[in-house]
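From the shared-data thread, chain only:
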Amino acid sequence: MGRVCILTDGTAQFIDSKFPGHDLVYTIPVGKPSTGVKWGGISRRPSLPTVDDFLSHFMLLSAEYDAILVLTLASSLGNVLENALQAAGKYVGSMDIQVIDSQTTDVGLGLLAQKAAEMAYHGADLNEIEDAMRVAIQHTYTLLCIPELRYLTRTGYLNHSQAVAGEVIGMTPVLTVEEGGLGIIEKARTRRHLFEMLQEFLGEFNHPWYIAMLKAVKGDFCRMRPLRRYLNEAFPETQISERSINPYLATMIGPRSAGLIVVDHLDENLP
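Structure, as tokens:
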């Protein structure tokens, strides 16, 4: 049976560094932006892995492995998926490569990579791991709260006039990361309203396997402390963590933005 490894990008955050198969996970770092360079008053985003980055990793890993599963940052948040697919198309070696859009980021991407690596460690082949990941992705939910709407002009989700008007009236959109784009589920006008919306969203889950609270780099607009109390009471058996959002995400959606990643019974969805 051929050896399988997992390749992901530097937006992934791992909750455990010593899981079974951790040495089967390889990460392409996210590059730092030029110091002090800004775009429209917004800090420039770190650079994401390029086609050449993926090709060089494919060549290096082919010396040790027979197959690679590539798990990328959600395509709605960056062009990593596109670059990985182009690289896979240009690769001329004998190694099997499968590229999957994780439809998440941060801890969500890290958890998927971890579970894929655990399957590889226990002897699963590339097809088995791919099938399991496609199921697991459907049970991984990513929610983003973005009070600084001007950051959404980068993604094309809003134009400048819409962003300015939304910030003037204090509107905070709550977005889900979905296949094909970002989907808005609600617009909050106050912090209390936002907290109630998050409670309503979380109320749709009975016994989630894992919840990651992605804290803002600056401030606490999304009221993470009372939300943590609510989570502890509502889901006493669920693993819950708090982490600052990764640097790439912070520069994309703003340093005051926060989020939630909910994984619904991920273990039960894997063979």
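The chain has a mean pLDDT of 84.
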